[in-house]
Amino acid sequence: MENFLLEEFLPYKLVRTAEHIADSFAGLYQSEFGISRPEWQIIANLGVRKNVIARELSELIRLDKVKISRTLTVLEEKNLIIKSPVEGDLRATQLSLSEEGIALYERLVPKAMEWENHILDGLTGTQYRDLCRILDTLYERTSNKAKVK
What we know:
The chain is mainly alpha-helical and 149 residues long. It contains 6 helices and 3 strands, in the order H-H-E-H-H-E-E-H-H.
């Protein structure tokens, strides 16, 4: 165990970096738009996906159902989303952005893109493509439940 360097352990490094990036980005949407991380995640997903079933959000944004349910209630109270019943499935709820939600999403996206451009400014195009390719590969390998032998 003496050769184990926590700071070089990939899972530790990835989580640490991801949390740092997420916290930094949260500063933008919390201060400028008054929304939380779960609210941002739901608004962003509903902005790029039309008519999402509520239970799908758990997989899309990796939040537990209770947190998603509470956040949906807050977003509905803020008039940012619309909940609709799903025909043929009394337990399912279909979600979409309201007019106010769409307007917020359309103000958020340019700010998010500007923020992303700022943090990526130090990377070359090749580094950016390599980073995305590597992250996609790691995601795919862990999604397929890669096993340690």
